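Shipment paperwork, digital attachment
Item: protein structure file
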Amino acid sequence: MSDAYLILENGVVFKGKSFGFDGEAEGELTISTRMTGYMETLSDPVHTGQIVVQTFPLIGNYGIIQEEMISDKTHLSAYIVSNWCEEPSNFRSEGNLDNFLRERKIPGLYDIDTRALAHVLRENGTMKARLSRNER
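Attachment content:
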């Protein structure tokens, strides 16, 4: 995984590591504080075009379970997590998060302080952002 950057419209930059689809994305940042249910977050039409920040510290641990999706497809433009589990351990798992995002052309970012990012959003309100391989 290579370095990637989340560049907020107010100029704040978060450096992390890329996973999922190898590409860039733009959109409105939104936060999900759910402890479980990342499949629902990934497939909820309410997140259409958004960059979703998942604040729970470990995402991907139960893998991909299609029957837990709200809709048949994903709607978000990018997915940001603190840590992602590369090898899910649930017996119902049908795959892992990295491959799921790659197949759906959704770039991901991990290894950033999602709580600090959530704090910036709480202090400054809703803003747009760009996920990029370049810091600018």
